[in-house]
Design goal:
Blueprint lengths: L2 H9 L13 H17 L9 H19 L29 H10 L5 H11 L5 H8 L3 H12 L12 H8 L1 H14 L12 H21 L4 H9 L3 H9 L1 H14 L3 H9 L3 H11 L4 H8 L10 H18 L13 H7 L6 H19 L1
Protein backbone atom coordinates (compact mmCIF):
# COMPACT_ATOMS: atom_id res chain seq x y z
CA UNK A 1 0.00 0.00 0.00
CA UNK A 2 1.42 3.35 -1.05
CA UNK A 3 1.10 6.72 0.70
CA UNK A 4 -1.38 7.79 -2.02
CA UNK A 5 -3.62 4.84 -1.14
CA UNK A 6 -3.54 5.82 2.52
CA UNK A 7 -4.46 9.43 1.75
CA UNK A 8 -7.36 8.34 -0.50
CA UNK A 9 -8.77 6.09 2.24
CA UNK A 10 -8.47 8.89 4.79
CA UNK A 11 -10.53 11.24 2.61
CA UNK A 12 -13.21 8.55 2.47
CA UNK A 13 -13.31 8.41 6.27
CA UNK A 14 -11.70 4.96 6.54
CA UNK A 15 -9.73 4.84 9.78
CA UNK A 16 -8.40 1.25 9.62
CA UNK A 17 -7.99 -1.50 7.04
CA UNK A 18 -6.75 -5.10 7.08
CA UNK A 19 -3.59 -5.40 4.97
CA UNK A 20 -2.50 -8.77 3.64
CA UNK A 21 1.08 -9.15 2.52
CA UNK A 22 1.66 -10.29 -1.05
CA UNK A 23 1.76 -14.07 -1.38
CA UNK A 24 5.47 -14.04 -2.29
CA UNK A 25 6.32 -12.44 1.08
CA UNK A 26 4.62 -15.06 3.27
CA UNK A 27 6.94 -17.96 2.28
CA UNK A 28 9.90 -15.64 2.86
CA UNK A 29 8.78 -14.94 6.43
CA UNK A 30 8.28 -18.65 7.03
CA UNK A 31 11.78 -19.36 5.74
CA UNK A 32 13.21 -16.72 8.07
CA UNK A 33 11.33 -18.24 10.99
CA UNK A 34 12.62 -21.74 10.22
CA UNK A 35 16.19 -20.53 9.80
CA UNK A 36 16.08 -18.59 13.07
CA UNK A 37 14.66 -21.62 14.86
CA UNK A 38 17.36 -23.87 13.41
CA UNK A 39 20.17 -21.47 14.37
CA UNK A 40 18.71 -20.90 17.84
CA UNK A 41 19.21 -24.58 18.64
CA UNK A 42 22.97 -24.12 18.38
CA UNK A 43 22.91 -21.33 20.98
CA UNK A 44 20.77 -22.92 23.71
CA UNK A 45 23.82 -23.77 25.82
CA UNK A 46 25.28 -20.25 25.91
CA UNK A 47 24.46 -17.11 27.92
CA UNK A 48 21.77 -15.30 25.86
CA UNK A 49 22.93 -11.95 27.25
CA UNK A 50 26.60 -12.47 26.35
CA UNK A 51 27.38 -9.71 23.85
CA UNK A 52 29.63 -11.95 21.75
CA UNK A 53 26.98 -14.64 21.34
CA UNK A 54 24.26 -12.10 20.59
CA UNK A 55 26.36 -10.91 17.67
CA UNK A 56 27.35 -14.44 16.63
CA UNK A 57 23.67 -15.42 16.55
CA UNK A 58 22.91 -12.48 14.26
CA UNK A 59 25.82 -13.46 11.99
CA UNK A 60 24.77 -17.13 11.95
CA UNK A 61 21.19 -16.27 10.95
CA UNK A 62 22.44 -13.94 8.22
CA UNK A 63 24.84 -16.57 6.84
CA UNK A 64 22.17 -19.28 6.99
CA UNK A 65 19.63 -17.18 5.10
CA UNK A 66 22.21 -16.50 2.39
CA UNK A 67 23.09 -20.21 2.26
CA UNK A 68 19.40 -21.08 1.94
CA UNK A 69 19.05 -18.72 -1.01
CA UNK A 70 22.10 -20.44 -2.55
CA UNK A 71 20.54 -23.89 -2.22
CA UNK A 72 21.35 -25.05 1.32
CA UNK A 73 18.57 -27.13 2.92
CA UNK A 74 17.86 -26.97 6.65
CA UNK A 75 18.83 -30.42 8.03
CA UNK A 76 15.97 -32.73 8.94
CA UNK A 77 15.71 -34.94 12.03
CA UNK A 78 17.27 -37.96 10.31
CA UNK A 79 20.56 -36.11 9.79
CA UNK A 80 21.01 -35.99 13.57
CA UNK A 81 21.41 -39.75 13.76
CA UNK A 82 24.65 -41.59 13.09
CA UNK A 83 24.90 -44.58 10.78
CA UNK A 84 24.75 -48.15 12.05
CA UNK A 85 27.87 -49.04 14.03
CA UNK A 86 26.87 -52.42 15.40
CA UNK A 87 29.83 -53.96 13.58
CA UNK A 88 32.31 -51.77 15.50
CA UNK A 89 33.63 -52.66 18.93
CA UNK A 90 35.48 -50.66 21.56
CA UNK A 91 38.98 -51.73 22.54
CA UNK A 92 38.15 -50.96 26.18
CA UNK A 93 35.04 -51.24 28.31
CA UNK A 94 33.51 -47.81 28.70
CA UNK A 95 34.10 -47.75 32.45
CA UNK A 96 37.63 -49.13 32.13
CA UNK A 97 39.11 -47.25 29.18
CA UNK A 98 40.77 -44.24 30.80
CA UNK A 99 42.52 -41.58 28.70
CA UNK A 100 45.91 -42.99 29.66
CA UNK A 101 44.93 -46.46 28.45
CA UNK A 102 43.82 -45.42 24.99
CA UNK A 103 46.76 -43.03 24.54
CA UNK A 104 49.26 -45.78 25.46
CA UNK A 105 47.55 -48.06 22.96
CA UNK A 106 47.63 -45.35 20.29
CA UNK A 107 51.27 -44.45 20.86
CA UNK A 108 52.19 -48.13 20.82
CA UNK A 109 50.81 -48.37 17.29
CA UNK A 110 52.30 -45.05 16.17
CA UNK A 111 53.75 -44.96 12.68
CA UNK A 112 54.45 -41.28 12.22
CA UNK A 113 56.20 -40.20 9.03
CA UNK A 114 59.96 -39.86 9.41
CA UNK A 115 59.73 -36.12 8.82
CA UNK A 116 57.91 -35.73 12.15
CA UNK A 117 60.72 -37.25 14.18
CA UNK A 118 63.37 -35.29 12.30
CA UNK A 119 61.53 -32.04 13.03
CA UNK A 120 61.23 -33.04 16.67
CA UNK A 121 65.00 -33.49 16.87
CA UNK A 122 65.49 -29.99 15.51
CA UNK A 123 63.04 -28.49 18.01
CA UNK A 124 64.66 -30.35 20.91
CA UNK A 125 68.10 -29.01 20.07
CA UNK A 126 68.53 -25.40 21.27
CA UNK A 127 71.47 -25.01 18.86
CA UNK A 128 69.37 -25.76 15.79
CA UNK A 129 69.64 -23.16 13.04
CA UNK A 130 67.48 -22.12 10.13
CA UNK A 131 69.70 -24.26 7.88
CA UNK A 132 69.03 -27.32 10.07
CA UNK A 133 65.27 -26.88 9.75
CA UNK A 134 65.50 -26.31 5.99
CA UNK A 135 67.68 -29.39 5.56
CA UNK A 136 65.19 -31.61 7.42
CA UNK A 137 62.10 -30.27 5.64
CA UNK A 138 63.75 -30.58 2.23
CA UNK A 139 64.26 -34.33 2.73
CA UNK A 140 60.53 -34.78 1.98
CA UNK A 141 59.75 -33.17 -1.39
CA UNK A 142 55.95 -33.42 -1.07
CA UNK A 143 55.99 -32.07 2.45
CA UNK A 144 58.27 -29.13 1.65
CA UNK A 145 56.10 -28.23 -1.37
CA UNK A 146 53.00 -28.18 0.84
CA UNK A 147 54.74 -26.01 3.43
CA UNK A 148 55.89 -23.54 0.79
CA UNK A 149 52.39 -23.33 -0.70
CA UNK A 150 51.02 -22.56 2.74
CA UNK A 151 53.45 -19.75 3.61
CA UNK A 152 53.05 -18.29 0.10
CA UNK A 153 49.28 -18.07 0.44
CA UNK A 154 47.85 -14.55 0.87
CA UNK A 155 46.66 -15.58 4.32
CA UNK A 156 50.25 -15.60 5.59
CA UNK A 157 50.72 -12.10 4.22
CA UNK A 158 54.23 -12.05 2.79
CA UNK A 159 54.70 -9.43 0.11
CA UNK A 160 57.26 -11.40 -1.93
CA UNK A 161 57.29 -15.00 -3.13
CA UNK A 162 59.10 -17.40 -0.80
CA UNK A 163 60.87 -19.80 -3.13
CA UNK A 164 62.81 -21.94 -0.65
CA UNK A 165 62.33 -23.53 2.73
CA UNK A 166 65.42 -21.73 4.00
CA UNK A 167 63.83 -18.41 3.07
CA UNK A 168 60.59 -19.46 4.79
CA UNK A 169 62.47 -20.30 7.98
CA UNK A 170 64.34 -16.99 7.95
CA UNK A 171 61.07 -15.04 7.57
CA UNK A 172 58.79 -17.07 9.84
CA UNK A 173 61.32 -18.28 12.41
CA UNK A 174 62.84 -21.62 13.41
CA UNK A 175 60.35 -22.50 16.14
CA UNK A 176 57.35 -21.18 14.24
CA UNK A 177 58.06 -23.04 10.99
CA UNK A 178 58.95 -26.22 12.91
CA UNK A 179 55.72 -26.07 14.92
CA UNK A 180 53.76 -25.45 11.73
CA UNK A 181 55.48 -28.45 10.14
CA UNK A 182 54.56 -30.65 13.12
CA UNK A 183 50.91 -29.75 12.69
CA UNK A 184 50.92 -30.49 8.96
CA UNK A 185 52.62 -33.86 9.45
CA UNK A 186 49.94 -34.89 11.97
CA UNK A 187 47.16 -34.60 9.36
CA UNK A 188 48.54 -37.63 7.54
CA UNK A 189 48.67 -39.80 10.67
CA UNK A 190 44.93 -40.34 11.22
CA UNK A 191 43.77 -42.22 8.16
CA UNK A 192 41.76 -45.17 9.48
CA UNK A 193 38.85 -43.57 11.33
CA UNK A 194 35.61 -45.47 10.54
CA UNK A 195 33.63 -43.32 8.07
CA UNK A 196 30.45 -44.15 10.00
CA UNK A 197 31.86 -42.08 12.84
CA UNK A 198 33.53 -39.19 11.12
CA UNK A 199 34.25 -38.10 7.58
CA UNK A 200 37.89 -37.11 7.88
CA UNK A 201 37.62 -34.28 5.38
CA UNK A 202 34.79 -32.79 7.45
CA UNK A 203 36.88 -33.15 10.61
CA UNK A 204 39.95 -31.46 9.14
CA UNK A 205 37.87 -28.71 7.53
CA UNK A 206 36.56 -27.83 11.01
CA UNK A 207 40.11 -27.97 12.36
CA UNK A 208 41.35 -25.70 9.57
CA UNK A 209 38.53 -23.23 10.23
CA UNK A 210 39.67 -23.12 13.84
CA UNK A 211 43.30 -22.70 12.71
CA UNK A 212 42.38 -19.76 10.46
CA UNK A 213 40.37 -18.02 13.18
CA UNK A 214 43.11 -18.70 15.76
CA UNK A 215 45.76 -17.09 13.56
CA UNK A 216 43.52 -14.07 12.90
CA UNK A 217 42.74 -13.62 16.61
CA UNK A 218 46.39 -14.02 17.63
CA UNK A 219 47.51 -11.50 15.03
CA UNK A 220 45.13 -8.92 16.51
CA UNK A 221 46.88 -9.44 19.87
CA UNK A 222 50.35 -9.28 18.25
CA UNK A 223 51.06 -12.85 19.35
CA UNK A 224 53.06 -15.40 17.26
CA UNK A 225 50.14 -16.33 15.06
CA UNK A 226 51.71 -19.35 13.31
CA UNK A 227 51.85 -21.19 16.64
CA UNK A 228 48.13 -20.55 17.06
CA UNK A 229 47.45 -21.82 13.56
CA UNK A 230 48.99 -25.15 14.60
CA UNK A 231 47.10 -25.17 17.91
CA UNK A 232 43.83 -24.57 16.09
CA UNK A 233 44.66 -27.30 13.59
CA UNK A 234 45.25 -29.84 16.38
CA UNK A 235 42.71 -28.65 18.97
CA UNK A 236 40.49 -31.73 18.53
CA UNK A 237 43.18 -34.35 17.94
CA UNK A 238 42.15 -36.24 21.10
CA UNK A 239 38.73 -36.79 19.57
CA UNK A 240 40.29 -38.84 16.76
CA UNK A 241 42.02 -41.11 19.28
CA UNK A 242 38.69 -41.68 21.03
CA UNK A 243 37.06 -42.48 17.68
CA UNK A 244 39.77 -45.03 16.86
CA UNK A 245 39.76 -46.78 20.24
CA UNK A 246 36.20 -46.31 21.50
CA UNK A 247 34.02 -46.13 18.36
CA UNK A 248 30.82 -47.47 19.93
CA UNK A 249 31.04 -45.18 22.97
CA UNK A 250 31.87 -42.32 20.59
CA UNK A 251 28.57 -42.87 18.80
CA UNK A 252 26.74 -42.66 22.13
CA UNK A 253 28.35 -39.28 22.74
CA UNK A 254 27.64 -38.08 19.19
CA UNK A 255 23.98 -39.08 19.39
CA UNK A 256 23.56 -37.48 22.80
CA UNK A 257 25.14 -34.24 21.59
CA UNK A 258 23.03 -34.16 18.42
CA UNK A 259 19.67 -35.18 19.83
CA UNK A 260 19.86 -33.07 23.01
CA UNK A 261 21.80 -30.20 21.38
CA UNK A 262 24.51 -30.08 24.02
CA UNK A 263 28.14 -29.28 23.18
CA UNK A 264 30.03 -32.41 22.15
CA UNK A 265 32.61 -31.86 24.90
CA UNK A 266 29.81 -32.09 27.48
CA UNK A 267 28.37 -35.21 25.84
CA UNK A 268 31.78 -36.89 25.91
CA UNK A 269 32.14 -36.24 29.61
CA UNK A 270 28.63 -37.53 30.32
CA UNK A 271 29.16 -40.75 28.35
CA UNK A 272 32.85 -41.51 28.86
CA UNK A 273 33.69 -39.72 32.09
CA UNK A 274 36.35 -37.67 30.28
CA UNK A 275 36.57 -35.65 27.07
CA UNK A 276 38.85 -35.16 24.10
CA UNK A 277 40.97 -32.48 25.81
CA UNK A 278 42.06 -35.00 28.46
CA UNK A 279 43.18 -37.33 25.68
CA UNK A 280 44.83 -34.53 23.67
CA UNK A 281 47.00 -33.55 26.63
CA UNK A 282 48.36 -37.05 27.17
CA UNK A 283 48.78 -37.72 23.47
CA UNK A 284 50.70 -34.52 22.76
CA UNK A 285 52.88 -35.12 25.80
CA UNK A 286 53.68 -38.61 24.49
CA UNK A 287 54.49 -37.11 21.10
CA UNK A 288 56.73 -34.55 22.84
CA UNK A 289 54.99 -31.49 21.44
CA UNK A 290 56.08 -28.07 22.78
CA UNK A 291 54.68 -27.42 26.28
CA UNK A 292 52.97 -24.17 25.29
CA UNK A 293 51.01 -25.94 22.54
CA UNK A 294 49.98 -28.72 24.92
CA UNK A 295 48.77 -26.18 27.47
CA UNK A 296 46.54 -24.16 25.15
CA UNK A 297 45.15 -27.21 23.30
CA UNK A 298 44.45 -29.17 26.47
CA UNK A 299 42.63 -26.23 28.08
CA UNK A 300 40.79 -24.69 25.15
CA UNK A 301 37.46 -25.62 26.78
CA UNK A 302 38.62 -24.40 30.22
CA UNK A 303 41.05 -21.48 29.74
CA UNK A 304 40.72 -20.52 33.41
CA UNK A 305 42.93 -23.46 34.43
CA UNK A 306 45.54 -23.00 31.68
CA UNK A 307 48.98 -21.58 32.43
CA UNK A 308 48.42 -19.28 29.45
CA UNK A 309 44.77 -18.31 29.92
CA UNK A 310 44.65 -15.66 27.22
CA UNK A 311 46.21 -18.00 24.65
CA UNK A 312 43.87 -20.87 25.55
CA UNK A 313 40.97 -18.44 25.28
CA UNK A 314 42.01 -17.61 21.72
CA UNK A 315 41.69 -21.29 20.73
CA UNK A 316 38.39 -21.53 22.61
CA UNK A 317 36.88 -18.61 20.71
CA UNK A 318 38.41 -19.75 17.41
CA UNK A 319 36.65 -23.09 17.93
CA UNK A 320 33.37 -21.30 18.69
CA UNK A 321 33.66 -19.18 15.55
CA UNK A 322 34.49 -22.26 13.48
CA UNK A 323 31.28 -23.86 14.75
CA UNK A 324 29.31 -20.72 13.90
CA UNK A 325 30.73 -20.74 10.37
CA UNK A 326 29.61 -24.37 9.99
CA UNK A 327 25.96 -23.92 11.05
CA UNK A 328 24.99 -23.31 7.44
CA UNK A 329 27.52 -25.85 6.12
CA UNK A 330 26.49 -29.08 7.81
CA UNK A 331 27.21 -28.22 11.45
CA UNK A 332 25.50 -30.52 13.93
CA UNK A 333 26.70 -29.57 17.40
CA UNK A 334 25.68 -26.86 19.86
CA UNK A 335 28.14 -24.11 20.72
CA UNK A 336 30.02 -24.36 24.01
CA UNK A 337 29.86 -21.25 26.17
CA UNK A 338 32.61 -18.80 27.07
CA UNK A 339 33.20 -16.96 30.33
CA UNK A 340 32.91 -13.18 30.25
CA UNK A 341 36.46 -12.85 31.62
CA UNK A 342 37.93 -14.91 28.79
CA UNK A 343 35.95 -12.88 26.24
CA UNK A 344 37.29 -9.65 27.74
CA UNK A 345 40.87 -10.95 27.56
CA UNK A 346 40.49 -11.17 23.77
CA UNK A 347 40.03 -7.39 23.63
CA UNK A 348 37.41 -7.65 20.88
CA UNK A 349 34.30 -5.62 20.22
CA UNK A 350 31.23 -7.48 18.91
CA UNK A 351 31.24 -5.39 15.74
CA UNK A 352 34.67 -6.83 14.85
CA UNK A 353 33.32 -10.37 14.55
CA UNK A 354 31.82 -9.80 11.10
CA UNK A 355 35.25 -8.73 9.82
CA UNK A 356 36.84 -11.87 11.28
CA UNK A 357 34.20 -14.06 9.63
CA UNK A 358 34.75 -12.28 6.30
CA UNK A 359 38.54 -12.73 6.54
CA UNK A 360 38.00 -16.41 7.30
CA UNK A 361 35.74 -16.77 4.27
CA UNK A 362 38.32 -15.04 2.11
CA UNK A 363 41.13 -17.47 2.94
CA UNK A 364 39.57 -20.73 4.14
CA UNK A 365 39.07 -22.57 0.85
CA UNK A 366 42.55 -21.64 -0.33
CA UNK A 367 44.17 -23.00 2.85
CA UNK A 368 42.02 -26.13 2.61
CA UNK A 369 43.13 -26.76 -0.98
CA UNK A 370 46.76 -26.63 0.15
CA UNK A 371 46.52 -28.96 3.13
CA UNK A 372 43.70 -31.40 2.29
Amino acid sequence: MTQEHIEALRTLGVSAVFVRFPAHMEPQREIERQVQEHVRNFFIFVDPDHEAFVELYRIAVQRSLKAFRDGWIIPCEEVLHAKNVEHLSDLFFKDAGEPGDIVRHEVGLASFPDIYFKIREVLDNPKSSAQDVARVVNTDVGFSAKLLKLVNSPFFGFSTTIDSVARAVSLVGVKEISTLALGISTINYFQNIPPELMDMRTFWRHSLRCAVFAKLLAAKKNLPSDRFFTAGLLHDVGRLVIFKNMPYASVEALLYARSDMVPLVEAETAVLGYNHTDVSKLLLEAWKFPAVLIDIIAHHHAPEIAHAREEAGIIQFADIMANVAEISAGGLFALPGMAQEDWKLLGLMPRELTLLINLHDEHFEEITSVLL
